[in-house]
Amino acid sequence: MNDIGKYLREEWEALILAAVALLLLLGLGAHVLAPQARKRRGLGGGEGIPYKRLFQDQDFALQQDSDVLPLSRSPFAFNLEGGKPIPPPPPAPAPAPAPDPTPATAPAAPALPSPLEQPAAPVPPEPPATAVEAGRPRRQFLPQRISYMFFGQDDKGQTTAMLKVQLQGKSSEILTLSPGELQAGVRILSIRDDAVRVRDARGKEVTIKFNEGQIVTALVEVE
Q1: Which domain holds residue 159?
Q2: 72-83: b (≥16 Cβ within 10 Å) or e
Q3: pLDDT by residue (tens digit) across 19-33?
């Protein structure tokens, strides 16, 4: 037993080659003998049992196009009494005409006889402008620049401010004003050594610091 195992271990390559050669011989024999076996059973080539069609052309005659007779009645209608034809269903009633969405116009009322037209009263002419109204000056809002230049007191001991006032389109002028005084629609509210507070002609309160200027709105008369 040990000799056989030793032989297999030493000659395993020869055994594999022998097995491969045997398999090749078996495959070659099967390839050669298989066509002869099929021929004997009638399965090989075109020389065996002749082929016979299972279906002929006349077997498919029912599938060919033929003239279809029209149905005399519905195939889904049944006659329970036998022998009596089923009457056709009554025609559907015609839909009622839809009402006209536009409302009917009411007949026009007869025209009433118009009364005699009264002549319009004449408009009195405007009186001519008098000489006083023609020469009266009109008032206008204009921008005015006010600069705070000096702080002091008058002879009565009241606080005063020296202001440089320049109206648009005119040269500047120096004015000395006290609290409460009004100049071209601009009223002096308060005076301090560092600032003057005023209210312009439109009611806006403005603070003007010392050695500075502000633009306010003045109300002046123009011809």
Answers
A1: 137-222
A2: eeeeeeeeeeee
A3: 888 999 888 888 887
